[in-house]
Amino acid sequence: EAGKVHRATTTAPVNIAVIKYWGKRDTNLNLPANSSLSVTLSQKSLRTLTTATCSESYTGPDSLILNGEEEEIQSSKRTQACLRNLRQLREEVEAKDGSAPKLSKMPLRLVSANNFPTAAGLASSAAGFAALVRAIANLYELPQTPQQLSLIARQGSGSACRSLMGGYVAWRSGTKEDGSDSLAEEVAPVAHWPEMRALILVVSADKKGVPSTAGMQTTVATSSLAPARFKDIVPARMAEIEKAIQDKDFETFARVTMQDSNSFHAICLDSWPPIQYLTDVSRAAMNAVETINRKAGKLIAAYTFDAGPNAVIYYLEPDSRAVAGVFKNHLPRVEGWDNEFGAAIRSNEMGGL
Ligand code: PMV
Q1: What ipTM was reported for this prediction?
Q2: Which of 22, 96, 167, 192 has its CA 20 to 30 A from that of 250?
Q3: How remote is the CA of residue 21 from the centroid of ligand 1, in Å?
Q4: What is the pLDDT of residues 293-346, one digit of tens each?
Q5: Which CATH code of 3.30.230.10, 3.30.70.260, 3.30.365.10, 3.40.640.10 fits the domain covering 5-349?
Q6: Does the Cβ of 159 fall within 6 Å of ligand 1?
């Protein structure tokens, strides 16, 4: 038994928010200024695969290899918070069962890789921290539910808490100072609305721009529009989009999704110094969606943008030709995606875990 390597492997999906998280009310605990809601994408095309091992025979500190390169995790407060929380839960398991191996005392070695190019500029931290937490929770045989684990993943990256569940997932802001009610909740499973699709338009593969943590701080400190968004606008939109999801009302879902993306980018531009994530190509994608919707005489496509220029377009499968068809011929090819995807475009089914 001595020197045995304990091991667990898992995957976690990417999620793309339709109601955006942008602003923290507590930077240490990663508590958000507003609730948010996302759709989990299929792991067939976008996911992080993570293996966690630990052993008495390991020496040295915990380590993480991400996409083949060693990451410096000792200085990462976020990663350390996740590891500390998970070890505490393992200690509870060991205290209850005296014969359980003392995994909490052993160094961890984590190996993680995305099945999509990190350089594609897609939010990979959500899937990354969700997979890290899930893999260690499996290794430690923790009894906690995905919702309880979302409290830990949240401390790695806010949006990561939404990647522990499939389908339509809300991150409830919560009100408690210790963050114990700031967690993810499944609003509807993927099977509730199986026609939903997401198209990812890779406008730029660059990883430039203002990182989310710094951008949020600037916005919270300087945007005069942000308080109204946090207090009234987002709570109303959360209620509206949750009802639209329950009713499978795509037109409302699409309108609220586009309004909220625009509201998020408006408070970015309203920050000082201003933050601009959208480019001319992003705006061309917005215009294309507007043209598609005008031609259809109703909303059949919805764009949304995170902290970068890449567009995600939501639509329903019966409208594939009218939506995806329009974009297919107009996109640059992005290295790393060509083999598997044929182009810098990928039509995703929605996913679960
Ligand atoms: O959790 P972070 O630090 O990766 O921030 C995510 C911010 C957005 O992607 C822009 C919005 C969101 O809710 O995912």
Answers
A1: 0.99
A2: 22
A3: 6
A4: 999 999 999 999 999 988 899 999 999 889 877 776 665 554 444 333 323 344
A5: 3.30.230.10
A6: yes
